[in-house]
Structure formats: C-alpha cells, structure tokens
Fold this sequence. Notes:
This protein has helices spanning 4-19, 35-57, 135-166, and strands spanning 78-86, 89-96, 103-108, 132-133, 189-196, 201-207, 212-218, 244-245. The protein is of the alpha+beta class. The chain has 2 domains: 4-30 and 145-245, no CATH class; 35-133. Strands 1-2-3-4 form a 4-stranded antiparallel beta sheet. Helix 1 packs across helix 3 (135-166). The chain is elongated.
Amino acid sequence: MFSRLLLRTLAFAFVAGTLSGQAPTAPTTPVGPSPLVTLRATLRNLVTYQEKYYAQNSRYASTLDALTPLGFAVPSKVTVTFIETKPNAYSASAAHADVAGATCVDWVGRPGEVAVPRTALDGTQGREGEPTCDGAVAVVENQQISEMKAALRNLVVAEEKHWADHGTYTTDASALGLYPAPKGTRAPLLPQVIFAGSRGWSGIVVHRRMNKSCVIYVGSPDELPFVPRTERERVVASREGEPTCERP
Length: 248
C-alpha cells in the first residue's frame, strides 16, 4: 500500500517538474458516447426496428428509409450500410467518423441465407444478432479508460498540493483548480472528490462519452466513511492511490 509520504513526494516532484504549482485541469474534448458504445447500440437498434418492420411486412427492410417511419435513426458521425438484404435475412455494417476505416458488423437470418459479414480491418465475424467490431474501435475506449486514470492521478497531485498548503484535503473542486472548465467547453471527464478530511480522501471520475467510471482513495480505508465504488459495475477501489476502473 502506498504510504502517504510517498504519495506526497511523488506529487510534489510532478508538480515542481511539470505543473509549476498549478493544479491540472480536465481535458475538454467534445462530449458524446464512445464510438464502441455508439456503434454497438446502433446495430442493436437496427435489429429491433428490422423486427418491427418484419412483423408488419413479413420481410426485412432493404433500405434505412423504410425504417425511418418506425423511429429508427442513425446517430451523428455514424454511417450504417446494408451489406445484403433478403426477405428473411440481412447483414449490415456501421462505421464511426472518429475511428477511420474500422467497422462493426451484424447479421440476422438462417446460416447460408446471407454471408456472415466481416469487419473492415480485422476481418472478424460474429454470431447472429451480436454486433462485432474491429479492434481499433475498442482501442478508442481503452484510451478513454486511460484518460480517466490520468484524471485521477492528477487529482492526487492537486489534493497533495492542497494538503501541503492547508493541512487537510478538500472536496472543493474550485480550490483544486479543476473547475470551472474553459468558457464554451464541456469536459467529458467529471472528476469529483467524494469525501475529504485531514488524513485521507476518496474520489471518482465519470467519462460521459462512454458512461463508465473509475475510483480512487488516499489514506487508510478504516478512516474513510466507505471505500469508493464505480457507478455502474460497483467495482471497489482495490489499492490506495491506484485508480480502479470499470471494464472497457
């Protein structure tokens, strides 16, 4: 387990070397769901609306326009393409503007009615009704997990600087220099201190683009009201000073 002294030493070394005494601020990338979440959700929605169309017409739609009256919509930055369409089967691919060249694919029908599609880069095939994506799409999500871990490590730096100046940790994001974000921008990362006292603190960061979170704590778990958990998967922070995240 990290000692508080070690954390402070590392924090001040980092502050002196790279931050010049200023607490770090969160990135300000435009907010939106991650490409992986968006593409999978889009293809799952396509299945839902194709089944609605089939129930009304005894065949699957061969164009996206035919699904629009039922409520199907393609999200911003996403392109959906039918690869094959048959009365009782179809295959489709989806691409995202933020992940050049990569695709997710899905298909519905009896084996042999349509060819099982392959993703554009890896040539990966999946099971019926289950969106399958190129690895490059998942890499983007892994990068966003890394962004959350970095935000929590920056939070450690900011808290240790505050402790050195005031003899206590704080829940005040403004005092830590994390807020407000630059005017006209909305940061996708939302770092927040859950609890803070003179001997420890706990925090969480939520990434709005992927709806996932990471947690961290500093100090003895026995001196915290509770060890923090991630929002969706309820993963408990495992070690002092180390970010614990939900799975990509």
